[in-house]
Write a structure and sequence with these properties.
- By secondary structure, the protein is an alpha+beta fold.
- The chain folds into 4 domains: 163 residues, Molybdenum Cofactor Biosythetic Enzyme, Chain A (3-Layer(aba) Sandwich); 54 residues, Molybdopterin biosynthesis moea protein, domain 2, CATH 3.90.105; 80 residues, Molybdopterin biosynthesis moea protein, domain 3 (Molybdopterin biosynthesis moeA protein, domain 3); 70 residues, Beta-clip (Beta Barrel), CATH 2.40.340.
- It has 6 helices and 30 strands.
- Strands 8-5-7-6-10-9 form a 6-stranded mixed β-sheet, with no helix packed on it. The chain has a 6-stranded mixed β-sheet with strand order 18-15-19-23-22-20, sandwiched between helices. Strands 21, 24, 26, 27, 28 and 30 form a 6-stranded mixed β-sheet that branches.
Length: 403
């Protein structure tokens, strides 16, 4: 294992991760599409159906025949969604039709129900329709179209689109196996175990929940005390059972930080252990073959951010994707100042209704509660101490629309 103490830029660190992990060959399996949330397809997905599968009504109304503009029609049938037309339209006749139902052959347009008045089996047209109000067969998707190019991760919309065109099974990479190690003799899992000097283990449950959110399979989630031999043993066991090992804490330079030493002892190649980012400076990455090990800082805000910037990025690479961290540029809601600027900084903020980024009260990387009131992070570049209200900055959104 190489010894590295040089602090590198975030972009360089991500390039190293990509260089080491791109091309990882994970096993695959065929599973129901509805069970493939946040897994990665390995084959292009080809539509098996036209969408719409037939000419259908775009709204509730009355189907009238082509070339037959009249003020009143005789209603010959009602066609519900899921039903089919049973009678042929002829001049002077119309079919009452529901949204999504197939239109009868020869239908020119559907008059929306709001523009009609029906009584005694007849419908009067109150105002003529300008649009046909018919969705044509195959106007959205044709059989044989590529719906999704591989590799791609399946979110709720992707799954819905696949199923809508008749794709009910997909070939995906098997979920990555992740082992979580929360290091620190001070952390406990139970309130009953709290003693002076002890704190609750928040990193372990947070990482577990994040892994579940992105369909990463957590095979173990344990606390590791600040002991060199215990750390080595726990890391070795984790490597035997997982594709990715994530440690939180123990990566700094304190007397009881043994993670980098343990990495060396189990034969991992250390790629970096200092990144010019705040929070997250002691971010550490090592690997062995197709296994990745991440040593995250101990403070929970840094853990949360580094999971999204590094662990999730690596998981996507290992699944065969070409991930890209997505930033947008938005203006700040107020002036911002910081005293030190030797590293780029990620600061929690909320997005205002008018599209401004509002920094929230934040006491540093141990202030986990601050994240509950944030929508993401705005980025202050290295060597920048002051930003003015209205100045545009990069913004990383992490929470969903309704979180």
């Amino acid at each position: 294992m190489s010894e590295t103490k040089e602090m590198i830029a975030l972009a360089e660190a991500l390039e190293i991760v990509e260089r080491q992990l791109a091309g990882t060959a994970l096993p695959t399996e065929i599973i129901p599409a509805r069970q493939a949330l946040y897994l990665t397809i390995v084959e292009n997905q080809i539509a098996r159906l036209d969408l719409p599968p037939f000419n259908k009504s775009a709204m509730d109304g009355y189907a009238i025949p082509a070339g037959d503009e009249q003020e009143e029609y005789h209603v010959i049938e009602t066609i519900p969604a899921g039903g089919i037309p049973c009678k042929k339209l002829t001049p002077g006749t119309a079919a009452k039709i529901m949204t999504g139902a197939p239109v009868p052959d020869g239908t020119e347009k559907v008059i929306m129900v709001e523009q009609t008045y029906e009584t005694d089996g007849k419908v009067r047209i109150l105002s003529p329709a300008k649009a046909t109000n018919i969705c044509q067969k195959g106007e959205d998707v044709h059989t044989g179209d590529v719906i999704l190019h591989a590799p791609a991760v399946l979110g709720p919309l992707e799954i819905a689109n696949l199923i809508s065109v008749g794709i009910t099974e997909v070939k995906v990479t098997k979920p990555l196996r992740v082992a979580l190690l929360a290091t620190g003799s001070e952390i406990v899992d139970s309130h009953d175990q709290l003693r002076p000097g002890k704190i609750m283990n928040s990193n372990g449950p947070m990482l577990d929940s994040l892994c579940q959110k992105y369909s990463l399979k957590v095979v173990s989630n344990t606390i590791v005390t600040d002991d060199r031999d215990v750390t080595v043993s726990a890391l070795r066991e984790a490597l035997n059972n997982a594709n990715i090992v994530v440690l939180s804490g123990g990566v700094s330079v304190g007397d009881f930080d043994f993670v980098t030493e343990a990495m060396k002892q189990v034969g991992l190649q250390l790629h970096f252990n200092r990144v010019a980012i705040k929070p997250g400076k002691p971010m550490t990455f090592a690997s062995s073959g197709q296994k990745a090990v991440f040593g995250l800082p101990g403070n929970p805000v840094a853990v949360y951010l580094m999971f999204h910037l590094f662990v999730l990025y690596a998981a996507r690479l290992m699944a065969g994707e070409k991930p890209k961290v997505r930033y947008v540029t938005l203006p700040l809601a107020c002036d911002f100042h910081r005293r030190r600027a030797e590293r780029m900084a990620y600061l929690p903020c909320r997005l205002t209704p008018d599209g401004l980024l509002e920094p929230i009260s934040y006491h540093g990387s141990a202030h986990l509660q601050a994240l509950m009131g944030s929508d993401g992070f705005f980025i202050v570049p290295k060597d920048v101490t002051d930003l003015s209200a209205g100045e545009k900055v990069s913004y990383l959104s992490i929470k969903g629309s309704f979180e």
